[in-house]
Write a structure and sequence with these properties.
Helix content is about 40%, strand content about 20%. The strands form three sheets. Strands 1-5-6-11-10-9-7-8 form an eight-stranded mixed β-sheet. It has a five-stranded mixed β-sheet with strand order 13-12-14-15-16, sandwiched between helices. Strands 2-4-3 form a three-stranded antiparallel β-sheet. The radius of gyration is 28 Å and the shape is elongated. Helix 5 packs parallel to helix 9. With about 425 residues, the protein is α+β, with helices and mostly antiparallel strands. The protein is built from 15 helices and 16 strands. It has two domains: about 240 residues, 2-Layer Sandwich (BirA Bifunctional Protein, domain 2); about 90 residues, Anticodon-binding domain (Rossmann fold, 3-Layer(aba) Sandwich). The structure holds adenosine monophosphate (AMP). The site of adenosine monophosphate has 18 residues, from strand 6, strand 10, strand 11 and helix 11.
């Protein structure tokens, strides 16, 4: 085969695309009920938007971005995440003027040059939502609670919410010094990337995938939670309090710092054992300085992003997406005049909201009927030149196994009537 899809990308085939549509509509409905507004941003942005927000030393920026120079010499990058683009949009379009607190959501594709495996792709999709404009802990709790509600309504039972606080910038900077002095004497025991990161951005050690580095951190790194200021602690306690009020179970994971630099205070992840090695369905946190860092007014915010492919992997296992309700009306046609009449009825009936299809292969009636069966048509309208002359169409109800003759004038009404009678 000459052309194949790029490694780490996926084709969504007809039988799967229904599930994607169902899921996107499901998510949209719940987020709209929670008063989030859909936004869409461009697929590519200035590279600097991502380096500046996500951080030079993160895996995403240092290893995984699809960056290129366009013909005018601009450095551009296919978005590897959506929070920075949404914040860029928020600033550029003065969305702060709409309301002091604004709630946005997205469902879109993103790109990271990671090592492809189950649940990890190079082009993948996320839905995510952000509450921009408030520092208060109830908004952190709302984001987590809303995500848990979506999963629960989708029938997912096996969830674990892991929660941590990495403090405000000030207390984190103090922590970084503590961490530096605690790890300094063990530096050579870490992998070369970690050693390099100890110089440049020591918090990123927690992202290392090597078990021996993680063991060293368990042994020697002081928990970040111990370095929180009084205000940070109070915020963290309040987030937990609001989560309890909302009935969300969680556990504190002291090592959860998340792999992007912009987070402050709350960080969280939701995992499912149905996912195997890549077990995080979603991750998020508070980012109180991002708007300011990208050139806007100081504006606190909190958000979350969920991997759609991973969500789909879970839903495939628990099988909770209902089958498509396909009430197809199939027009089996024989002869020139019949074809014209059938085409006319086809166009009219679609205008009445009916899913209808006509044979385009000009095959024998037998193979048209076989085709209708394969497509699981509910009704088949059989139209031949003779029938048109005699003003009658045979309407076969495949579900009830009955057929009757209907006049051309009555066919649309009869189809609508029978479709409403069909058990689905
Ligand atoms: P992040 O943007 O890294 O915080 O990731 C948020 C969520 O996106 C994760 O919990 C995953 O569900 C999903 N995700 C991240 N990277 C990938 C990937 N390469 N392929 C598929 N899903 C991903």
């Amino acid at each position: 085969m000459k052309y194949k899809r790029i490694k780490g990308t996926r084709d969504i085939l007809p039988e799967e695309s229904w599930k994607w549509q169902y899921l996107e509509q499901f998510i949209t409905k719940i987020l709209e009920q929670n008063n989030y507004n859909l936004v869409r941003t461009p697929v590519f942005e200035m590279t600097d938007l991502f380096t500046r927000s996500i951080g030079e030393e993160t895996d995403v920026v240092s290893k995984e971005m699809y960056s290129f120079t366009d013909k005018s010499g601009k450095n551009l990058t296919l978005r590897p995440e959506l929070t920075a683009p949404v914040i860029r949009m928020y600033i550029q379009n003065n969305l702060n003027q709409i309301s002091p607190v604004i709630k946005l959501f997205y469902i879109d594709s993103l790109f990271r040059q990671e090592r492809p495996q189950k649940g990890r792709y190079r082009q993948f999709h996320q839905f995510g939502f952000e509450i921009i404009g408030t520092p208060h802990p109830e908004s952190d709790a709302e984001v987590i609670q809303t995500m848990v509600a979506i999963y629960t309504k989708l029938g997912i039972r096996d969830l674990k919410v892991k929660l941590n606080s990495i403090g405000s910038r000030d207390s984190r900077n103090k922590y970084l010094e503590t961490l530096q002095s605690a790890l300094e004497q063990h530096k050579t025991k870490f992998c070369s990337t970690c050693q390099d990161r100890m110089e440049k951005n020591i918090l990123r050690l927690f992202d290392c995938k090597s078990q021996s580095c993680q063991d060293l951190l368990d042994e020697f790194a002081p928990p970040i939670i111990d370095s929180l200021s009084v205000e940070d602690r109070e915020h963290f306690t309040q987030v937990q309090n609001f989560l309890k009020i909302s009935g969300v179970d969680f556990e504190v994971d002291k090592k959860l710092v998340r792999g992007l630099d912009y987070y402050t205070r709350t960080t969280f992840e939701i995992t499912s054992s149905l996912l195997g090695a890549q077990d995080a369905i979603c991750g998020g946190g508070r980012y109180d300085h991002l708007v300011e860092d990208l050139g806007g007014q100081p504006t606190p915010a909190v958000g979350v992003a969920c991997g759609m492919e991973r969500l789909m992997l879970i839903l495939d296992q628990i099988d909770t997406i209902p089958a498509r309700k396909n009430k197809l009306v199939y027009f089996a046609v024989l002869g020139e005049n019949a074809r014209e009449k059938a085409f006319e009825i086809l166009c009219k009936i679609r205008n009445r909201g009916v899913t209808a299809e006509m044979d385009f292969m000009r095959r024998s009636l037998k193979s048209q009927m076989r085709n209708a069966g394969k497509k699981e048509a509910h009704l088949v309208a059989i139209i031949g030149d003779n029938e048109i002359e005699e003003n009658r169409i045979i309407l076969k109800n495949m579900k009830l196994g009955k057929q009757q003759e209907v006049t051309v004038e009555n066919i649309i009404n009869e189809i609508l009537k029978q479709l409403n009678e069909v058990e689905v």
